[in-house]
Amino acid sequence: MQIVLPSGTEIIETSSYVGNTRGTGNHIEIWVGVLIRSDLEPDNIFDYYKDYEIVWAVPIDENQYPEPRSYMTFPYLSGNGDRTGCFIVAGHYYPVTQFDIRRSE
């Protein structure tokens, strides 16, 4: 994942996870996320990153995330840091191979 920052925006931290992030099944996904802070209006951030799978404004209440955060770890959000102007830009990706070792008959 390559991320280009608009002016007035900084990266606070990055996070990644490899495993099964959604549902069940015999697959592995890679989740990669970047926590950014911007002086831009939310609509400008959403428009700037419109080609990314996930762009969330960071809610004040962690229970308001659109999906479970069990695999998203941003220590900054666990502390008392200022969340004003913070966004998560992220996506789910497949590993290089989906090699399946099950035997098919």
**Separation of termini?**
38 Å
Q: Report low-confidence residues grouped into runs of 5 or more.
A: none
Helix content: 10-25%
| N-to-C order of helices and strands | EEHEHE
Protein structure class: mainly beta
> What is the CA-based Rg, rounded?
16 Å
Mean pLDDT: 81
Tally of distinct domains? 1
Strand arrangement, largest sheet? Answer: 1-2-4-3
- Count of β-strands: 4
**Largest sheet entry:** 4 strands, antiparallel
Shape type: globular
What attributes characterize this protein structure?
105 residues, mainly beta
Task: Write a brief caption for the model.
This protein has 105 residues and is mainly β. It has one domain. 10% of the residues lie in helices and 31% in strands.
Task: Describe this structure as you would to a colleague.
The structure is a single chain. The protein has 105 residues and is mainly β. It has one domain. It contains 2 helices and 4 strands; from the N terminus they run ββαβαβ. It has a 4-stranded antiparallel sheet with strand order 1-2-4-3, covered by helices on one side. The protein starts with 8 loop residues before the first strand and ends in a 12-residue tail after the last strand.
